[in-house]
């Protein structure tokens, strides 16, 4: 019997490459620095911000809290499309495009 992989138990959004992530960050409508913050605070802030954005706007959350990469996209639900960028040193950016 094989052990489940990380991908079997975590519903991470699609990952972005470094170049695409930097371009999206530069064009973001809003950037939230959630470094050091834990759930549920990032989800609450993302949900509040997404409701105030126009369709096509991008909200970026910077975080070092791995569960946020899964929980924030779930919190905004169908209101936004999510993608994640990983730095390789424990930093993440969650990109949320308002639908």
Automatic annotation (TrEMBL):
InterPro entries linked: TusA-like, TusA-like_sf
Pfam families cross-referenced by the UniProt entry: TusA
Superkingdom assignment: Archaea
Location of the UPF0033 domain: 33-98
Protein name: Sulfurtransferase TusA family protein
Organism this protein belongs to: Halorubrum trueperi
